[in-house]
Design brief:
Belongs to the shikimate kinase family. The protein has 163 residues and is mainly alpha-helical. It is built from seven helices and four strands; from the N terminus they run H-E-H-H-H-E-E-H-H-E-H. It has a domain of 112 residues: 3-Layer(aba) Sandwich (Rossmann fold), CATH 3.40.50.300. It has a two-stranded parallel sheet with strand order 1-2. A two-stranded parallel ribbon has the order 3-4. Helix 5 packs across helix 6. Bound molecules: adenosine-5'-triphosphate, (3R,4S,5R)-3,4,5-trihydroxycyclohex-1-ENE-1-carboxylic acid (SKM) and magnesium ion.
Length: 163
């Protein structure tokens, strides 16, 4: 969460002319509810089921797509196994705790898991989640570091990685 998936995928999409679908936005459209509202009204377990269904739907699309996952997507419902399918290229955008903190502290309200956290709690949350989730993130076929890079630099690194 906050590593720049949505931002970077938009630029990558223009650069390589492949359409981009943001999984969180796709779920919001399908359910006609914000991610916040889904968490509040239906709970996280229900969100994780919707997230898995939506991910499978997009992977089965006949069109070539860039799918920007949610921050938790690889960590639930065995979604990490879908990152290594035959027609899939998966990229982990790797950010340090400090980079994630700097980005997320500016923009917490739309992210239900961190909306109410103080700066100290946010840093603790990031460190704990990176530790717990790194196994799943590391299932991606490629890793691209995003620390201290502009969006354009990261996109160029991704294009080179995929070439
Ligand atoms: N070099 C950079 N690359 C990517 N994002 C950046 C960069 N510098 C600042 N940002 C900012 O970081 C914030 C988080 O980016 P973004 O929302 O794209 O992350 P995300 O990985 O999609 O998060 P989420 O998992 O919550 O959807 C945005 O406000 C974005 O503008
Ligand atoms: O890190 C997470 O678990 C989440 C990240 C967001 O992309 C959303 O999918 C949701 O807020 C959960
Ligand atoms: Mg996003």
């Amino acid at each position: 969460m906050g590593c720049g998936k949505s931002t970077i995928a938009k630029t990558l999409s223009k650069n390589i002319d492949v359409p981009f679908v943001d999984l969180d936005q796709y779920i919001e459209k399908k359910e006609n509810l914000t991610i916040n509202a889904i968490f509040e009204q239906r709970g996280e377990i229900c969100f994780r089921k919707l997230e898995h269904q939506a991910f499978v739907e997009l992977l089965n699309s006949s069109e070539q797509l860039i799918i920007g996952l949610g921050g938790g997507t690889p960590c639930y419902a065995n979604n990490h196994e879908l990152l290594i399918g035959e027609n899939v290229s998966s990229i982990y955008l790797k950010a340090s705790i400090q980079t994630l903190f700097d980005r997320l502290s500016l923009n917490k309200s739309k992210r239900p898991l961190i909306a109410d956290k103080s700066d100290e709690e946010l840093k603790e949350f990031i460190a704990m989640h990176l530790f717990e989730r790194s196994f799943y993130y590391n299932q991606a076929q490629f890793t691209v570091s995003v620390d201290e890079k502009t969006v354009d630099q990261t996109v160029l690194d991704i294009v080179a990685t995929l070439a």
